[in-house]
Design brief:
Layout (H helix, E strand, L loop, with lengths): L6 E5 L6 H12 L3 E3 L1 H13 L10 H5 L14 H10 L3 H16 L3 E5 L2 H5 L5 E6 L2 H11 L9 H21 L12 E4 L5 H19 L1
Parallel strand pairs: 1-3, 1-4, 2-3, 4-5
Length: 217
């Protein structure tokens, strides 16, 4: 029998395409969607706004004051927030405060959630666990284009190298942190997206969901 709530956990490193997949997948199967990484980005943004250094200051107060409007800001996916969010995500008190937010989101109807520890920490019993990844170079290009980058602009290669360096540093920090490190759940299915467009990734995810649902019946 299908366990409740029906949760699809979509984990993976930054800019691998997991957010795009999770949102489209949620629409396809009729579940609410939550980008959990935005929670940490929003906490980091609030800290930066008041000149708090996430490397030396707890983000608990900002996490507890988080509002829906904070998640709608247009300045959450910039390099300074990338770095700060990684530091915020290492703080056990912040992660603890946000765990409840994520679990409550899925309590009523289930959900598709994407992040870095959904299948390992937040919902270790999720029926479907996906780990979406790609090479640092491919992810850097996606992030560059997401933030308005132009590959015809002079100097764009240097900008791209800086983003790739930032992504590699984020990967290392996320994998090495003591609290809920980035890792692949033992029962997750990996999707490598380097040579896949968004439609192909979605089709593969839908296939996996159907297979898991069929196995659960």
């Amino acid at each position: 029998m299908l366990r409740q709530p029906f949760v699809v956990a979509v984990d993976g490193p930054a800019a691998a395409g997991k957010g795009t997949l999770a949102k489209r997948l949620a629409d396809e199967i009729g579940l609410p969607y939550l980008d959990t990484g935005l929670l940490y980005r929003a906490v980091a943004r609030r800290m930066l706004d008041v000149s708090e250094d996430p490397a030396h200051t707890s983000g608990l107060e900002q996490a507890e004051g988080l509002s829906p409007e904070d998640l709608l800001r247009g300045d959450l996916r910039v390099p300074e927030v990338d770095r700060a969010a990684s530091l915020v995500a290492r703080q056990p008190e912040v992660r603890h405060a946000l765990v409840g937010v994520q679990r409550r989101f899925a309590d009523e109807r289930g959900a598709v959630l994407d992040g870095r520890d959904i299948g390992t920490v937040i919902f270790p019993d999720a029926l479907v666990k996906l780990y979406v990844t790609a090479s640092p170079a491919a992810r850097a290009l996606r992030r560059y284009l997401q933030t308005g980058g132009d590959t015809t602009r002079p100097g764009w290669e240097e900008e791209l190298r800086e983003i790739e360096t930032s992504i590699r540093a984020r990967d290392e920090a996320d994998s090495a942190r003591e609290t809920a490190p980035l890792r692949i759940a033992e029962d997750a299915v990996m999707i490598v997206t380097d040579d896949m467009d968004a439609n192909a990734v979605l089709a593969e995810a839908i296939r996996i969901v159907k297979d898991r649902l069929a196995a659960a019946d």
